[in-house]
Design a protein that fits this description.
mainly alpha
Length: 70
């Protein structure tokens, strides 16, 4: 099975750029999630960091995203 994304450039340049850099976005979000998890797990976090971790996970879940899924 193949999936092909097609863009009309230059009109769709923004969408094309987001698609090309999607892995970079994923890796950045994954790093943020892992750092929040590390801080909460090892006690380096106050309640505001725990709240931020919950907010990030909620936002991702609302969009059907799971940075843990491969």
């Amino acid at each position: 099975m193949k999936a092909i994304l097609e863009f009309n450039l230059p009109d769709d340049a923004g969408e094309h750029d987001r698609a090309v850099h999607a892995v970079d976005w994923y890796l950045a979000v994954y790093d943020i999630v892992q750092e929040l998890r590390r801080r909460v797990k090892y006690g380096d976090a106050g309640p505001e960091v725990q709240d931020l971790q919950e907010w990030v996970w909620g936002m991702l879940n609302d969009r059907g995203l799971d940075p843990e899924r491969e």
